[in-house]
Amino acid sequence: MALLPALLLSAALSSLGWQSHVDASEWWSLALSPMQRPEAYLLSAQPLCQLVGLSPGQRKLCHLYQDHVPHIADGARLAVRECQHQFRTRRWNCSAGEGDSVFGRLTHIGSRETAFAHAISAAGVAHAVSRACREGELATCGCSRAPRPRELQRDWLWGGCGDNLEYGYRFAREFVDAREREQGGQQQQQQQQQQQQLAARHSVEHSRTLMNLHNNEAGRRAVYGLADVACKCHGVSGSCSLKTCWLQLADFRKVGKFLKEKYDSASAARAGRRAKLEPANRKFSPPSAGDLVYLDASPDYCVRNETTGSLGTIGRSCNKTSEGMDGCELMCCGRGYDHFKATVVERCNCKFHWCCYVKCKKCTSVVDRFVCK
């Protein structure tokens, strides 16, 4: 089973010292391709749901819903790809260093980037599970049972087989939030037992738990809120005299773009007295459930730093003519850039031939490339 080595990778990472109270989402390792980490095969004798990377609650869900696990992995991969797309022109481009887990040591810091990572990952699971329900791949769910929208025209039929957002949302909440909820309970017990000695440490841990839970929820809400009604026409010769409509997930690219905008407007927060997040600056309004929140300033992504997980921008491509973050001045952090010529081979002059194939020529061109020093 192709999924098993990817799951085993989580155990391998933990055995190498990757367990941490703030590295709360070891399940992200499901997104890694086993071909990238062949050493993961060495642990193939360990039972699937007894991996160190899964929390007790996640192990329980794994046992109860084994047919869901491939779709959790699909959601994790979907999230990583989308994260890398959205940040492809930023100093932090959502990639991890060699030997790291999916998002690397970055997640040890309660930064904007960690907030986005949690949100997009939770969104990926909700999206993948909702779609799997519709496609009949899960035993415990099927097509959406969402009520007919009030604004839908009366002569249109509400039916078809829609994406089951309700189920996807609920399952993603139970699985993704499991570790944080378990840690939250442990922290409360420990605070009562050793309140004076560990108060400061637990305050930090509790704040991170609240932050992660908040951003997980924001990701799921993005998937839920961006879903829309899709319709199909019926009638003689395409007259569309009748329509059948259903609830359909938005393309995940749209979800990624939406959460990227939330990242840019994320709110600095801190844990309040009532176990809730509140603005770090009391002059600002409290963040909504759909906003992203962070606790710590982002690290310097200009230079490589193994402690923070920053890979730096040396060797990154940049756009000489852009004044944005992808421009050489900002991307290279003022260090300058190298210019070279590159030969590019592309498909061109494509023509459709009846029936039914497309034939293209190969065109070669020389282009300018700019790379950060």
From TrEMBL:
Coiled-coil residue windows: none
Region Disordered: start-end pairs: 180-204
Keywords in alphabetical order: Developmental protein, Disulfide bond, Extracellular matrix, Glycoprotein, Lipoprotein, Secreted, Signal, Wnt signaling pathway
Molecular function per GO: cytokine activity; frizzled binding
Gene3D superfamilies linked to this entry: 3.30.2460.20
Pfam families in the record: wnt (PF00110)
Keyword DNA-binding: no
Source species, domain of life: Eukaryota
One Gene Ontology cellular component annotation held by this UniProt entry: extracellular space
Biased composition (Low complexity): 184-197
InterPro entries: Wnt, Wnt_C, Wnt_CS
Signal peptide: 1-24
Alphabetical GO biological process terms: canonical Wnt signaling pathway; cell fate commitment; neuron differentiation
Subcellular location: Secreted, Extracellular space, Extracellular matrix
Family the UniProt entry places it in: Belongs to the Wnt family.
Protein role: Ligand for members of the frizzled family of seven transmembrane receptors. Probable developmental protein. May be a signaling molecule which affects the development of discrete regions of tissues. Is likely to signal over only few cell diameters.
Protein name: Protein Wnt
